[in-house]
Amino acid sequence: MPNIEQTIKRQRQDVKKRENNQGQVTSMRSAKKKFLAAVDTDADNKQELYEGAVKAIDRAASRGLIHENKAARDKSRLSKKLAK
User: Fold this and answer.
1) 8 A C-beta contact, residue 31 and residue 53
2) For residues 75 and 59, is the Cβ–Cβ distance under 8 A?
3) Residue closest to 77 by CA, chosen among 47, 32, 28
4) Are the C-beta atoms of residues 31 and 16 closer than 8 Å to each other?
5) Domain boundaries of the chain, sorted by first residue
6) Which pTM does this prediction carry?
7) Backbone conformation region of residue 64, classed left if phi is above 0, alpha if psi is from -120 to 50, else beta
8) How high is the pLDDT of residue 2?
9) How would you class 60 by CB atoms within 10 Å of its CB: exposed for 0-12, middle for 13-18, buried for 19 or more?
10) What is the per-residue pLDDT across 28-55, written as a single tens digit (0 to 9) for each?
């Protein structure tokens, strides 16, 4: 356990940041899964779900939660599914 006040505060902040980041990554994954489920069932709103998934992926990449190349790869795969 750290003795320095600054280090104690930094640990408290890190816990909050980690929870926030994990929540954003989880919402990104959920958006991707919703889109893939809509493609499988050939739903009417798959274009909207695609746009939401791409937005979530871009948001995660811009905040450094996932690598930019992973974001590009995921978006490419989703667009292929949409085009089918």
Assistant:
1) yes
2) no
3) 32
4) no
5) 45-83
6) 0.86
7) left
8) 86
9) buried
10) 999 999 999 999 998 899 999 999 999 9
- From CA 27, how far away is CA 5, in angstroms rounded? 34
Tell me: pLDDT of 12 over 90.
yes
**d(C-alpha 32, C-alpha 52), whole Å:** 8
Burial 33-42 (b: 16+ CB within 10 A, else e): ebbbebbeee
Contact 68, 44 (CB under 8 A): no
What burial class does residue 59 get, using C-beta atoms within 10 Å of its C-beta: 0-12 exposed, 13-18 middle, 19+ buried? middle
Complete DSSP assignment for 52-82: HHHHHHHHHHHTTSS-HHHHHHHHHHHHHHH
Determine the straight-line distance between the first and last CA of the chain, rounded to whole angstroms: 55
Mean local confidence (pLDDT), 9-33? 96
